[in-house]
Specification:
5-stranded parallel sheet; two-stranded antiparallel sheet; binds adenosine-5'-triphosphate; binds magnesium ion
Length: about 270
């Protein structure tokens, strides 16, 4: 006789939703797609793909863990989600500080532990641990963090999954230095760096993906910025593009460049004409 408890147990432990909440979580991170704005993007995707393949075939070690690090807004989470999605692992789970707001340290550790335990039950699993330093409650003022959570994560990052099971862990962080100080870096199989856009050509490549600026506008922008320092994360750039969309086409270029300068993403050194 099957009772409700058996059913709930099966729901919790036996049924592995290939397109359940986790896949949706990945889609949410990828809603704006991945623009190939430069060789570093293709480089990260290539290296990342090799690592996901390594996780799939590895016969000696069943665990591959990758840290995807870079400045805030550089696109770390989206790239991690892209790799997780393309890995085609049937079990994908996101472990994100957003889902644990207000959790006690203990509750947080238990939740992280549960995500890993669930993953160990599946043949091929992928866990995306987003924004590690926030998961550890790291605050730049102080600096203090949750040592309990750090120790829990360190154990899980080093623990081999049960025999025959493969686990791919993709982590993101804006604070590589902090993780280094916490002696966490050595726990990773590999570290991939996500840079900001730094070349005028890279910025133009992104602008050309949208029908926002005319060819002349883009030409004008290129003339203004070429030879100057650009330094902007893709997420921030997309936000500035959204903002420019709201402005009158006549002043769009000026508005966009001014905003870039105000935000410290562009150093023109002179007034914009
Ligand atoms: P945070 O520092 O706040 O965690 P982040 O570095 O994780 O930010 P994302 O949240 O991944 O940045 O935001 C990147 C956004 O840019 C996403 O909306 C993504 O779809 C889009 N995007 C477009 N092209 C790329 C790219 N080449 N790499 C990464 N993200 C891209
Ligand atoms: Mg992120």
């Amino acid at each position: 006789q099957v009772c409700k408890d058996d059913f709930l147990h099966a729901l919790e432990y036996d049924i592995k939703p290939a397109f359940g909440a986790s896949a949706e979580a990945l889609e949410h991170f990828l809603a704006r797609g991945i623009i190939n704005w430069g060789s570093s993007v293709s480089g990260i995707l290539e290296d990342g793909t090799l690592l996901t393949q390594q996780a799939r075939v590895a016969d000696t070690f069943g665990l591959v863990s990758v840290l995807i690090e870079g400045p805030p807004n550089s696109g770390k989470t989206a790239l991690a989600a892209k790799l997780a999605k393309d890995s085609d692992f049937p079990f994908v789970k996101v472990c994100s500080p957003e889902d644990m707001v207000g959790f006690t340290e203990t509750a947080k550790c238990l939740q992280i532990r549960k995500i890993f335990d669930d993953a160990y039950r599946s043949q091929l699993s992928c866990i995306l641990v987003d924004n590690i330093e926030r998961l550890l409650d790291y605050g730049s003022i102080g600096p203090r963090y949750s040592n309990l959570t750090l120790q829990a994560l360190l154990v899980l990052l080093k623990k081999q999954p049960p025999k025959g099971k493969k686990l791919l862990v993709l982590c993101t962080s804006s604070r590589k230095q902090v993780l280094e100080e916490m002696e966490m870096l050595s726990a990773f199989t590999a570290v991939l760096h996500v840079p900001n856009l730094s070349q005028p050509e890279e910025l133009i490549t992104v602008l050309e993906q949208f029908d926002l600026f005319t060819k002349q506008d883009i030409h004008k922008i290129y003339n203004q910025i070429s030879g100057h320092n650009v330094f902007i994360g893709i997420k921030k750039l997309l936000a500035l593009i959204d903002m420019a969309r709201q402005t009158d086409p006549k002043v769009r270029v000026i508005k966009f460049l001014t905003k870039m300068e105000e935000e410290g993403c562009l150093d023109l050194g002179t007034m914009i004409h």
